[in-house]
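Sequence, please.
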């Protein structure tokens, strides 16, 4: 799980400016491949650009911040039943460290932040983190919109305080409407708790409210229409996600994929769908349901990748910047923080991560290797 092998390629000891070591390391040395701690020369050479722009001209404006790799569920497509060991508490970024890194990212063009996990509601200091991040001022004026992706368990109890702290939007995972199927899929009997969280979000007025489901053949592909109808009844947008090779157990098989095209075919048998123009960098293609106003989203990351418009970066709970969900390289911001790096150094490290971003995720490449970290450790 999270204690996968890591080849640290740019340091022999802690501290910015250490002599690079193992730069020629084979990525296959460890399932998570290489973790980079930039040298002083690399930081100085990265420039002082205003925006986080990669070599393909993609300007990055969306930051996903994982708060923990722990989760209250054990979804079969994400985590094994015996998940662990998890990150020790002292290796998680603190609220102050998260605030600082997000502020630096915002100063360099990030315009939206989403808090993820694992399950972010497992952080006891979540309200404090939301308040810190929501108070960050954007260079052009105004504060930062803060969203959160959650499984919804305990959300009904904590949402008022989170909303008061500045939470602006919420996405809730719901893969099935059937309690017994939920128990089998998640290995936990918490379906009623998730529904309570959805009801609380519906009543809170936070909009848009989005419900996420991973479409799985032989599991929930017979419920797609029912899930859309339920979302409409909750004044929410249903979003179906193609299952990706990000499960910690590495059991993903492409021939089991329920593609975005198949999802739309099934939904079209029940609803009148019309594509919404102007997708931009959004991962979801949207379609109105029976003329609107409600919509359904389809995230076809595997069958119709949208890498060319990707504007997302990810910060893991242990302070590693990842420029792609499927990256096998990480940039070590946590060590820089511990070594009293300046804001300029941290911004330079972020630019180095962005510069190394590849054109696409490479799932269809013959030499594709699934990341060692599962989705719970990367952040959604």
């Amino acid at each position: 799980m999270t204690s996968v092998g890591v080849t640290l390629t740019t340091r022999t000891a802690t501290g910015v400016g250490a002599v690079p070591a193992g730069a020629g390391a084979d990525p296959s040395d460890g399932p998570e491949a290489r973790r980079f701690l930039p040298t002083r020369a690399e930081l100085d050479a990265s420039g002082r650009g205003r925006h986080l722009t990669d070599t393909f001209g993609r300007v990055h404006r969306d930051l996903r911040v994982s708060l923990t790799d722990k989760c209250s569920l054990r979804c079969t497509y994400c985590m094994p039943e015996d998940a662990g060991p998890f990150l020790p508490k002292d290796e998680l970024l603190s609220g102050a460290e998260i605030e600082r890194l997000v502020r630096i990212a915002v100063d360099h063009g990030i315009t939206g932040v989403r808090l993820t996990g694992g399950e972010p509601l497992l952080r006891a200091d979540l309200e404090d983190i939301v308040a810190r991040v929501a108070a960050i001022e954007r260079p052009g004026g105004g504060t930062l919109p803060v969203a959160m992706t959650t499984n919804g368990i305990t959300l009904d109890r904590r949402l008022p305080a989170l909303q008061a702290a500045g939470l602006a939007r919420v996405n809730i995972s719901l893969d099935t409407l059937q309690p017994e199927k939920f128990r089998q899929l998640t290995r936990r009997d918490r379906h009623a708790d998730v529904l309570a969280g959805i009801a609380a979000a519906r009543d809170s007025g936070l909009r848009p409210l989005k419900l996420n489901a991973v479409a799985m053949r032989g599991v929930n592909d017979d419920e797609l229409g029912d899930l859309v109808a339920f979302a409409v009844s909750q004044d929410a947008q249903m979003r179906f996600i193609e299952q990706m090779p990000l499960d910690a157990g590495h059991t993903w098989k492409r021939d089991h994929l329920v593609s975005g095209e198949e999802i739309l075919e099934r939904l079209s048998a029940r609803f009148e769908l019309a594509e919404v123009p102007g997708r931009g960098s959004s991962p979801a293609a949207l379609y109105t349901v029976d003329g609107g106003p409600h919509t359904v989203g389809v995230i076809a990351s595997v069958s119709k990748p949208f890498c060319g418009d990707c504007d997302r970066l990810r910060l893991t709970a242990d302070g590693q910047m990842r420029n792609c969900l499927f990256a096998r390289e990480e940039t070590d911001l946590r060590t820089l923080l511990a070594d009293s790096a300046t804001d300029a150094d941290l911004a330079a490290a972020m630019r180095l991560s962005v510069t190394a971003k590849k054109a696409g995720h490479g799932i269809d490449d013959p030499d594709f290797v699934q990341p060692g970290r599962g989705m719970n450790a990367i952040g959604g």
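Residues 191-204 form the longest helix (14 residues).
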